[in-house]
Amino acid sequence: MNQFPENIHFKFSWRKYQKELLEGLDFHLKNDHFHIIAPPGSGKTVLGLEVMLKINKPTLIFVPTISIKTQWISRFCKLFLNTDIVPAWISNDIKNPQFLTVVTYQSFNSATKSDEDFKEILNKIKTKNIQCLVFDEAHHLKREWWKSLMKIKEKLSCKIIALTATPPYDVEYAEWKNYIALNWPIDAEIYVPDLVLEKNLCPHQDFVHYSFPSSEEFDAIETQKEKSDKIFLEIKNDQILVQELKKLPFFLDPVKFESDIYENIGFYSSVLIFLNEHKIKISKKHFEIIGTETKIIPPFNRDWAETLLNFILFEGGKYFFDLKEYKENLYNKLIRNGLVENNSISFGRNENINSQLINSISKLNSISEIVDFEYNNLGNNLRMVILTDYIRKEYLSISSENDIELMRIGVMSIFEKIRRKNFKKKKIAVLTGSVIILPIECKKLFLDKIKNYNINVPEIFLLSFDENYFQFQQDKILNNKIVSLITDIFSEGKIEIIIGTKSLLGEGWDAPCINSLILASFIGSFVLSNQMRGRAIRSEFGNPEKTSNIWHLVCLNPVDENFGEDFKVMKRRFKSFVGIDYSKSPHIQNSFERIKPKMNLFNYSDIQRTNLSTFKIASERKFLCKKWDFAISKGSGLIEEIKIPFPERESFMRTKKFYYDKTLQRTVLTLISGVLGFGGQSLVSILSRLKNIHSLYELGTFVSLFGFVGLFIFGGYTFKTFKIFLRYKNISKDFLKIGTVLLESLQFEGSIKKNKNIVVESKSDKDGIVICCLKNASTQENGIFLNALKEIVSPIEKPRYLIVREEKFLFFLMKQDYNPLPDILAKNKKTAEYFLNQWQQKVGNAKLFYTQNAVGRKMLVKARFNSYSSNFQKKAEIINEWK
């Protein structure tokens, strides 16, 4: 068998975007590769199957999980072969391949561990004449999986179909190269807004419900903060440390021990900052090394304390050999107070506290509030799914009452929280691999459907503590069908709320009726989060008005100015999908910024007001479709771009105006002083003639002296203020120049093809945020460009090359900035020098320093103290926006 049987075809009509892709298939397959980005709900699987049919050769399909493997085979049989029976020429076993074989990446990797095993599998594959490989969800391949796949690809002469929802644009360049080596460059992308426009996905919106920790959790947070503060103050005032650090050779003679400084820049900086805090004189030689002309050293804070202690305890043994007992006592004290995580000192991060927040019991109240809100709005039309990580069977009582205190989040504790206050008789079900609970209202329908599925009727029993719900004796045969059976009941409305585990329902489950999803799952990758979210946003046949709300839960840390780890994780999660913002004129993008709350979240009343505001927006489902239509009309594709925010706490326009006004004022004062100084004698002459008063000579002398003093004072202020104002000119023009230099350098290096139509676009908004991207470049070329630009504006660590740029006014050096050369251009001197040459032509004066030699390392020390990039630390981010 060398071809698929005749007359196999997709039983439904193709969607517009699918049809367009298939019509261009011959062009895409000229290089024997078809690489497509397709989000959940786009019909990615059937598209891959159709491409496989058009290639019409023996095929091996790789998928990430067993459930998705089953889905591929099921979809092919039902939608193409029009049968539920799997033919003999389809296999799911890599050790027994057939004409069409579907296997998981893990099973293939396990079966080919040794060279002998690989040869055996390769021979079996060759025997079946496999000529087409399909890689599904190839973006999250583990490194060892990639190696085994590359080996099989190199041994076969195959066409490659690569399908993914989220390509790894944000990974290291080496990993991106591996990804492209396996899948080749991206041929096409299906966008979520296009799917909404085509009615394949429904209009939807993401919401965040905030909570504060419970009183017990808050006490734990407060206690940990008190411990952290106490230990920090002890370290800050530790006289033993003062005496030991004063004796360090590179502190006593920095010139002689420059090499030690270069090897340990962070520690060296922390030593200077710590000793300066104790009023220890810092010699001029140190300021020459760090390049701080003003001799201003930052205060000693927790970050610098972490740097200092990490080196003393874990890295700098040779400097503190005589402090063995001191170090041991210090380490034990830090351990006892919860300040050591994975052999690293942390005054702010504590895994126990983070875990308590992420799994906070306060989220049960959030879930209960969301359930009541959605039911009040949708009534019996509610089709809600709540996904979480654990079952928590300890909350399933066998007594006549269930009043167990709910202390941990899980399926059963969520069920109990809702059931105990279910005054409106919401129809709630539990669906997991080992516990299934259904509302009594669906018992008859459940029994009827079991008969339709040709399954023996199981033994049914009521919950001991609530006769409004029943369970049944599960067996293997029933378990294989139960998800489909209960999904049918859910679709028909006899169940309104399903509480389940992400392991059972998170991947591969299809229930288009879902119109509200609560993500109470806090473990796993962002890829899985996106897949779970994809369950709710599919359109539903026969329900053109369907909209969906997706709810995210966050417990805030009230003593952390950044709101804690749970908030941080949620923000990262939002980078993996796009949606509309809350405004009346919405736009489409990824990132948390689109739904960022307008008010502060520092106390309980702030959170209550924010949640009430969120509920108000979530209740306006009738406007959701119009909002999506409006947002989609504003663009034609998702553009990846970098956002570089204004570095100061004050607003951009306010700061710029402040320094502009100051410059203007001081310039006027300088001019007046100049007139008074140089025009004093003229003034005497004029006044003398007018008044004929000879004593005005003395007045003129006084005015002249006053003017010269004013010129000296205000002239100096004007110069300094003008220097600061230069920082706040239109920095988008700076980034346009820098971006152009980077583009031409990447074209010279070869990562981006030379094409005069590819240009840099840069603009800034009223807040001083610079937005930059490439126009007319491929998706991966733009991704390479943005990652490299992000490196340029990121904190300086240990770059291979350093760009030092200078701005001058007349004969004065106004400022000196430091930027790392991106790794992709730092591989060899030729590309580095090309970048410098382009910079000098288009941006301005600059020098290139190789940081592996003495001169370069010296400059690197200065850069770490004075880097312009540090202004943007951890703020520049790459986003996708519909334009």
Overall description:
By secondary structure, the chain is of the alpha/beta class. Among the domains are: 16-190, Rossmann fold (3-Layer(aba) Sandwich); 215-356, no CATH class; 652-726, no CATH class; 749-882, no CATH class. 47% of the residues lie in helices and 15% in strands. The protein contains 34 helices and 25 strands. A nine-stranded mixed beta sheet has the order 8-16-15-9-14-10-11-13-12, sandwiched between helices. Helix 7 (143-155) runs parallel beside helix 8 (173-183), helix 14 (265-277) crosses helix 16 (302-315) and helix 29 runs antiparallel to helix 30 (696-726). The relative contact order is 0.08. Residues 648-671, 673-680, 682-699, 701-730 and 809-814 have low confidence and may be disordered.
Shape: globular
The name of the CATH architecture of the domain at 16-190 is: 3-Layer(aba) Sandwich
Task: Tell me the major beta sheet.
Answer: 9 strands, mixed
Low-pLDDT sequence parts: 648-671, 673-680, 682-699, 701-730, 809-814
Task: Give a brief outline of the structure.
With 883 residues, the chain is α/β, with parallel strands linked by helices.
SSE layout:
Elements: H1 16-23, H2 25-28, E1 33-37, H3 44-55, E2 59-63, H4 66-81, E3 90-91, E4 100-104, H5 105-111, H6 115-127, E5 132-136, H7 143-155, E6 159-164, H8 173-183, E7 188-189, H9 192-197, E8 204-211, H10 215-236, H11 239-246, H12 249-252, H13 258-263, H14 265-277, H15 284-290, H16 302-315, H17 324-336, H18 351-358, H19 362-378, E9 384-388, H20 411-419, E10 428-431, E11 436-439, H21 443-452, E12 460-463, E13 466-472, H22 476-491, E14 497-501, H23 502-505, E15 516-520, H24 526-534, E16 548-555, H25 565-573, E17 579-580, E18 588-589, H26 604-618, H27 624-633, E19 638-644, H28 652-678, H29 680-691, H30 696-726, H31 731-749, E20 759-764, E21 770-775, H32 779-792, E22 801-809, E23 812-820, H33 829-842, E24 846-850, H34 854-866, E25 877-882
Parallel strand pairs: 1-6, 1-7, 2-4, 2-5, 3-4, 5-6, 8-16, 9-14, 9-15, 10-14, 15-16
Antiparallel strand pairs: 10-11, 11-13, 12-13, 17-18, 19-21, 19-25, 20-21, 22-23, 22-24
Helix pairs in contact: 5-7, 7-8, 14-16, 19-20, 28-29, 28-30, 29-30, 31-33
InterPro entries: Helicase/UvrB_N, Helicase_ATP-bd, Helicase_Restrict-Modif_Enz, P-loop_NTPase
Transmembrane segments: 667-687, 699-719
Protein name: Type III restriction enzyme, res subunit
